[in-house]
Amino acid sequence: MFNFIKKSMAKNDKNSEKSLQSEQLFAVANQVLQDHSAGGQDNKVTAIKQYGDSVTLDLRLNADADPEEVHRQLGLALQNYGINEVNLNVSLPAKPKTSPSSHSHATSTQAPSMTSDDMPAFASTKGGAKTLPKTVNAAAPKSQTDEPPITKRAPLQSSLQPHPRIKHILVVASGKGGVGKSTTTVNIALALQKLGNKVGILDADIYGPSMPSMLGVEGVKPQLENEQFVPVEAHGLAMLSIGSLLDGDNTPVAWRGPKATGALMQLFNQTNWPMLDYLVIDMPPGTGDIQLTLAQRIPVTGAVIVTTPQHIALMDAQKGIEMFNKTSIPVIGVVENMALHTCSNCGHTEAIFGAGGGETISEAYQVPLLGQLPLASTIRAQADKGEPSVVANQGDGDDYAHFYVEIAQKIEANIAKFAKQRNDGRIF
Fold first, then answer.
1. Percent of the chain beyond pLDDT 70?
2. CA-based torsion, 417, 290, 211, 325: positive or negative
3. CA distances (Å), 335 to each of 170, 173, 318, 361, 414, in order?
4. Within the chain, which residue ranges are assigned CATH 3.40.50.300?
5. Mean pLDDT, range 89-94, rounded to an integer
């Protein structure tokens, strides 16, 4: 569990949840070992270390146990508890050697002396088992230990099951920061809601969360029910952001990649989302750990790429499209932000960041250009007030709301072809 959850539940008990989860994982792993066909009660977990969504287990297995099968079963069992990577340190006793015949001392051939490679794993080091590479049989002949270690292939989008309460998961991404991605995300979510959909929004920009401020719910903490978050209601949206869990606006999130990706998965998996037609995820800029984790572990319907006409922004937007293509996430379309600026004094219109960039990238990758948004101070001002353009003026929207509604209509018209196949009998 992560610090922001611990603080929200009990500041004076910072380690209780982490130890509770480790105990739960320890119990689950032990049950898997005892159910294993070879060894049964002789198979034991001796130690466990957890690092975000990764665990390292020290195992003592029966000599007849199959470490590879044990590794596979543990991976399947612990995946249900948010664990994505399982590493094993295995100790195996040596299988008994055939005793020499009674007359062997009289022959010229003697039994070979025992070398360090023949020693049982539990006798290799003083006071404990020898730590070995994961799933390598310490009692096997040396030639077998030269085989490469077992590696677990990253899950594919096609193998991920749809969320039981979410019909479509839509990610809004950009190759670089500063292109207006978050403002576009929140207005697209509100526009989809205006079309009659039930919509949620997940702020996955762990290092720079902005959704609470843009939706006017800054400082509102999510409730906890049965150890799950209850999303914050904001303009009719079910919203959750790490920004809602921090102590203040100036609290930095100084986390390394594994902890940040673990936080994203915790926000997604440990939230009691209502029945939704769309969950819109505001992605951080770039193509790093968080994007890859999302692509491998969250069943995404499609992605929307936000860019500006500027050449540098287009270069980074192409990298984002390439990443989604390689991870089998369809790109629903491109939104060109800050396309034109109209002077509020003289009415002169100018393409400050260049022209035609969105059309160029759309044609190059054969994806729709969903819309071109103006560079307008009103859009920025409404987001700063916590009343984005689509719900400004008491819900009627401002002069720029129709741009976002048109984008939402195009997403609605094409989303069915990208929908995840469901086999759970649910009807939406």
1. 76
2. negative
3. 14, 10, 13, 10, 15
4. 157-418
5. 75
Question: Average pLDDT, stretch 335-351?
Answer: 83
User: Is 311 buried (19+), middle (13-18) or exposed (0-12) by CB count in 10 A?
Assistant: exposed
The answer to whether 182 and 214 are in contact (CB under 8 A) is yes
DSSP helix/strand/coil, 124: coil
Q: What whole-number distance in Å separates Cα of residue 159 and Cα of residue 324?
A: 16
Of 273, 278, 281, whose CA–CA distance to 185 is shortest? 281
- Which of 152-161, 214-223, 411-420 is predicted least confidently? 152-161
Residues in a beta bridge with 324 = none
Tokens 């205006």 belong to residue: 194
Query: What long-range pairs does 136-145 form, CB within 8 A, spacing at least 24?
Result: 136/67, 136/90, 137/67, 137/90, 137/92, 138/90, 138/91, 138/92, 139/63, 139/92, 139/93, 139/94, 139/95, 141/117, 142/117
Contact 25, 83 (CB under 8 A): yes
State the architecture of 157-418 in CATH terms.
Answer: 3-Layer(aba) Sandwich (3.40)
Strand partners, 58: 47, 89
Task: Write the CB contacts of 349 (distance below 8 Å, at least 6 apart in sequence).
Answer: 340, 341, 342, 343
Q: Do 343 and 381 meet the contact criterion of CB atoms below 8 Å apart? A: no
Residue type, 167: K
Question: Hey, which residues does 203 pair with through a beta bridge?
Answer: 241, 282
The β-bridge partners of 36 are none
- Other C-beta atoms within 10 Å of 66: how many? 17
Average pLDDT for residues 274-294, to the nearest whole number?
88
The mean pLDDT value for 385-392 works out to 94
The answer to whether the CB of 48 falls within 8 A of the CB of 57 is: yes
Question: Six-digit token pair at 406?
Answer: 């048109």
Confidence at 254, pLDDT banded by 50, 70, 90: low
Average pLDDT on 224-228 reads 88
Helix (H) or strand (E) holding 191: helix 181-194
Q: Which residue has the tokens 């790093």?
A: 288
Residues in the chain: 428
Q: List beta partners, residue 241.
A: 203
What pLDDT score was predicted for residue 261? 81
The pLDDT tens digits of the residues spanning 73-83 come to 888 888 878 88
